[in-house]
Structure formats: C-alpha cells, structure tokens
Write a structure and sequence with these properties.
Glyas_Fos-R_dOase_dom, VOC family protein, 2,3-Dihydroxybiphenyl 1,2-Dioxygenase, domain 1, about 120 residues, Glyas_Bleomycin-R_OHBP_Dase, 2 helices, VOC_core
Length: about 120
C-alpha cells in the first residue's frame, strides 16, 4: 500500500489554489469550483482541495510537507508574502518545523525530519 493523496476542505478554491501554488505545489487538475489537485515537487504523492459548504470544527486538519532545505524554503516563502505562525525551530521529537495556516485555517507544517522521520529513537 502507498499513500496516493491527501484532500483538505476549502470554502473557496479560487483563493486556495494560488496559496498552494505559492507553497510550491504544481496544479495538475482544476475542476472549479469543486476540486483541484496538485503534484508535490518531490516524490509521487499528490495533494488536493475540495469545496465544502462548511469547514470542520475542532482542531481541524494538519498536513505535513517535508522540505530538505526547510530554512531556505521558509525564507523564500516569506519573501513571497506567506505568513508563518511559527518559524523553523527544533522540536523535542527531533524534527525541525515551521507552521502556517492556509486560507481555510488548515494547519500546514513544513518540516525536516531526516533519519528521525521514520526512525526516531523511540521507534518500536
């Protein structure tokens, strides 16, 4: 089994699409107003957004995108006008992360996990 894609809800794809393109994802399907799909710049996974009438409540969606050059990528995004809630910093779970929200308040985490991504010291 392999992860194909993650889909997140959006109230307005015409606002969401440019946001994700600015993050570096490549738009491959544009079926407005209901659906859009992107390719990640690395690997085979894809990411999509679909229109909803109401966003989920509670803690919401968290999406992690791994960046081997996290600090440089965040700096470039800031220069493009992307606002971050949390700049790159080292976490006690041995990842380096930066956090932001998309236009629909979904939590986006850009991170670098290195060897600890799948093999932390506490792995079973």
């Amino acid at each position: 089994m392999n992860l194909n894609q993650i889909t997140v809800p959006s109230l307005n794809l015409e606002k969401s699409i440019p946001f994700y393109q600015k993050l570096g994802l490549q738009l491959i399907v544009e079926a407005l107003p209901h659906y859009a799909r992107f390719e990640c710049p690395e690997g085979d996974a894809t990411f999509s957004i679909h229109q909803v009438e109401k966003l989920p409540t509670g803690d919401g969606v968290h999406v992690y995108f791994e960046c081997s050059n996290l600090d440089e990528h965040v700096k470039a995004l800031i220069e493009k006008g992307i606002e971050f809630e949390e700049l790159p910093n080292d976490k006690n779970w041995k990842w380096r992360e930066a956090r932001l929200r998309d236009v629909d308040n979904n939590q986006i985490i850009l991170f670098f996990g290195g060897v600890n991504r799948k093999n932390p010291p506490w792995r079973i």
